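Quick note —
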Amino acid sequence: MNSGDKDTITPLTWEYIAGFFDGEGCIFYTTEKYRKGVSHYVLLSVTQGIKNNQGCHIIERIHDFLSEHGIKNGITHFANPTNTIRIQITSGASARDTLNGLLPYLTVKRAKAIEAIDFINNQFLFLWTSPPQQQAILDLRAKGYGIRRIGNALNIHRGTAKNILIKHGMYTTRMKAGRIPSVSI
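Predicted structure written out below.
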């Protein structure tokens, strides 16, 4: 079988990709800084070294497989001196869908995948927001602060404040001071 000929190779499965991802993949959390705070998200990546254009076909096949399953992903070729090819998934929904497809077959990265799925499902926030910071958000809301004012007071992204309030049942579009229940975490 010619390793570079896509037509003669058996179709990929989630099980095969999970084995490849267990060995070559990476799950990590990254941060983007904004004017009023930070945003955190999960990034999935697989990097493969290539020599004389050998080895890039598997990454391209994984890219095709994920795209066929509606998962947004991108490929980057790095020329000399690294001579590698990388597939990345940066969208939260795409990372979650990919990890859910891989999860039944993962062994090495299984615990990290479960943690990442939980992180994504909890709107990217709760691993990055400490309990004291969550309590400060709740306390300011109980004093009648709006989302923007909470964000400014604590120097956090207002989406973080909003999602903490949603988690604790303290968010509606028009909350008024004095009508907000006191919640402790």
